[in-house]
Design a protein that fits this description.
Layout (H helix, E strand, L loop, with lengths): L23 H26 L14
Length: 63
């Protein structure tokens, strides 16, 4: 009993998902996340511009 199906089968098309309804809490949460992400990026850019944090100079032995 041989079938004519060879190789991978194509997946069936899935129905498109309806856009999710967002209430005020969800919108506020997303806005808060965007603000935190933006602040983090600014801090990373600011830190990238500087040199090493511990300059220290010449290290001396404890003799």
């Amino acid at each position: 009993m041989s079938s004519r199906q060879g190789g991978k089968q194509k997946p069936l098309k899935q129905a498109k998902k309806a856009p999710k309804e967002l209430d005020e809490d969800d919108m506020a949460f997303q806005k808060k996340q965007q603000e935190e992400k933006r602040k983090l990026k600014e801090l990373q850019d600011k830190a990238k511009g500087k040199g090493p944090l511990l300059g220290g100079g010449i290290k001396k032995s404890g003799k």
